[in-house]
Design brief:
alpha/beta, globular, single chain
Amino acid sequence: MNFLELFNKHGLIAAHRGARAICPENTMSALKSSIGHCDFIEIDVQLSRDGVAIIMHDETLERTTNVAKIDAYKNRIPYRVCDFTFKELSSLDYGSWFYKDDGYTHSEPLLSLHDALHFIKKHQLFLNIEIKDMHKYFDDEYVVSTILKEIDDLQIQNLILLSSFRHEYLSLCKKKMLNIPTAVLVKNRHPSSLIEYLNTLQADAYHLNDELVDKATVAKLQEAGFFVNVYTVNDLIRREQLFNMGVNGVFSDFLE
Ligand code: G3P
Ligand code: MG
């Protein structure tokens, strides 16, 4: 089964940044804990200063690492991910922030895209890689080539769905790897001429904020052949409403 065939199942649950309610988001622990509790996993990808793809949501390191506590980095504010080399990023702790001060050590290593992909290949899990918008720091072509190369190296195109708020990345993905499924991410409003727009991008799916969802739009998208997934849905009643509207899947922080 490939990622698009998965969408033939009803009521899919995506583990948003892994099982982030019980583990530090976007870490190996979060991936491991989501196994058996979701239909696919979503993670966020960025590049280090030296071009290594790593898993991290925020543009800066402060919220989800211990960077601000390390003297050697005190002159590196605002702690942008793209200002740190892979070696520097690897020296940080990605776990302790999550557990607060309970007297135990909960350090977590950096998760690289390389390690995440090996993990999902080994366990044959479906993975949605959200490519964060890095256009201010890296050339689009470079970002996309770096990520696609890692997928190609492992030959796991069947397990992957690529998504981004930066839609230029998605056209480039299709140009370079036609068989890789892509999803257009939107937050505050729909692009004008939505269906034509998605066709132009050769997208397979549309990922929208819950606040933007309405039944007519879901129906229109699906009639046109696009899968529809909604983020971030943590309320069970709302989840059922969305599934009753025909939405394919929801991204959730809480897994059963
Ligand atoms: O990909 C769905 C969702 O993750 C998009 O928002 O900010 O949580 O990455 P964000
Ligand atoms: Mg995301």
